[in-house]
Amino acid sequence: MERGPDIFDDAMNTTPVDQWDTKDVEKWLIANYFDPHVSQICDVNGCDGPSLLMLTEADFHLYNLGLPIGDAKRLIIALRKLQLSSVDSMKRLGLPLHVGENSLSGQGCQRSHRYASISESDVGDSLTSSVELIAETTKRFPPEIWKTVISAVYMNTVLLVTSCVMVIVHDRVPDVEKYPPLPDIFLDNFPTIPWAFTLCELIAVGLMLILIAILFIHKHRFIVMRRLFSIGGTVFLLRCISMLITSLSVPGVHLQCAPKTHANLAAEIKEAVQIYLGMGMAIQGVRCCGDYMFSGHTCVLTLLNFFITEYSPRHLYFLHTTTWVLNLFGIFFILAAHEHYSIDVFIGFYISSRLFLYYHTLANNNALTQKDGSRMRIWYPMFYFFESSVRYTVPNEYEWPFPWPLFLKKCLAGGNRKKRF
Question: Of these residues, 170, 218, 220, 297, which one is catalytic?
Fold first, then answer.
């Protein structure tokens, strides 16, 4: 079925909007790609032509229409265009033409405005208001690349410090003959699988590639990257502190964890840089002991899973299920390889998942706009800094970042209109 405003206008140009019934409104919504909201607007609330022309942004909240911010703003723009093309219907209903300043801003229709005369300049001003409305919508999610760069520097600094701490804790690891592995329900009842840890790291690489692909086409990629870097850096900063405070004995006797002798400080720094460049992965030749509380591999798997699930299209259930399965299997492989205690994995999953959820709960509920929002500067200074310009829930909208190939750019743009991401 062909759809689009032009096709709809050709079919309905004989019926004024103020004479539309709910079926006509339903056709208009479908033609403008608002299919998911037809039932709520037409069936539940009985919106006809006059009601459609009088619809305000405040009505979205008052009648609980359940529109996400992206669809709500696109519907407002579509309504504005409909009102501009239905001047006669607006006159008959006694509605002002300047709805961009009243109706769409949620202030209601002021009947004190009268149609003494409607000149071309009035229409031009109204069209200008529509353009300004679109620009204002874009400003709600400023990329602020400089903040993303700062968050990347923050995370990489934490990872470099963590690498230095890993060198220190390796030399402090307790002697396995004097301090045998601690009792652990899982490790004591499950044999060691030598190749399991390699498989865990390959899963992490796969999840990372998926997230990179999503960030590449996400319209608000810099905001998402900023959140990834700030949350990831904070998680590993907590891990850096916890593993430096307490040194646990090795979880398995198969691990070769003899303290390394470094000739001087330069040798220790060199090893720390090697750990940093190898991203702490065994498949990159990195082998350290003592960094048990808590599991960094579990944190990476969990954060990758949560970010993929949060910022990928909502209807990709197969992808979301797959990432969760990979997350859980990756955790299982860590334990199967006896590289960490069960408590390391549990705490790693808990801290990374809670920090992700707390951060996004504050961000998605406009915590900075509340009456006590200034307290955020004290309790969550980094959150306040990175999220101070993002006052709305970030929508999952996608775009091809290059002007070519054109079909990809059109495909993603069409997907934003048709799908409820």
Answer: 297
